[in-house]
Amino acid sequence: MAGEIYIVTGASGIAAATIKLLLQGGAHIFYIGKEPDQCRNLSEEIRSMELYADYIIGDLTDESTVYELVSSCIKKYGRIDGLFNVAGASGRSFGDGPLHECTLEGWQETLNINLTTQFLMCKYVLNQMLLQEPGENGGRGVILNMSSVLAFSPEAANFSAIAYATAKGAIISMTKTAAAFYAKSNIRINAIAPGLVLTRMSARASGSEKIVAFMETKQPLAGAVMDPIDVAKSAVFLLSDAACMITGETLVVDAGWSIS
């Protein structure tokens, strides 16, 4: 991992925790965030660790931003060894919810934010990976997409959001289909599906006494919500050479959610 070049989308939560672990492993990082303060705060935290990461501020639902991010990374480093697609958001503010209540805007915006952005990032990064020579490990690159335990283990009472679950399920299908096609080019593509993690997006759930009590038994390994670092460690594994023979898979990191 030392000396390799990674793009990570997102600047908080799981993204921030993963960025720090990758940097500590000697990697070079380009990240993106939508909120300037969030990006700058992460940059300052990284500098306080005597490390450095490049970043841009932008909205990945705009294809020109995706192009800018990928081209900026290539211009500086000449290649991309890995991509971790983390950035996403709840669609509740747009109208996501149970199917009979979900608005068309809620459906479209939620899929755009959580699915289309990952599609675009994969597309632009794959075009670069296909052009570059294999690295020392024989691979041209690795992509890790962010899914969710809600894609295959719904929880109707507290987390019923049809568009979000659909987007996260589609990410698993996209990942497996792409992995099958690009394996011959020595490009690995996997997904990771976390349970409930303490992030800004989960703040509503994390602040509810009812949901916190529910999570104590739903995620028994954590006893509540997970810390971002718990998922970041698994993400780093999938992005590293330690997972060099793994592609087309979805790693579930849910503290026992799907079996509880």
UniProtKB/TrEMBL annotation:
SUPFAM superfamilies: NAD(P)-binding Rossmann-fold domains. InterPro entries: NAD(P)-bd_dom_sf, Sc_DH/Rdtase_CS, SDR_fam. It holds the Pfam family adh_short_C2. It comes from the Bacteria. One of its GO terms (molecular function) is oxidoreductase activity. Keywords: Oxidoreductase. Belongs to the short-chain dehydrogenases/reductases (SDR) family. This is NAD(P)-dependent dehydrogenase (Short-subunit alcohol dehydrogenase family). It comes from Chitinophaga polysaccharea.
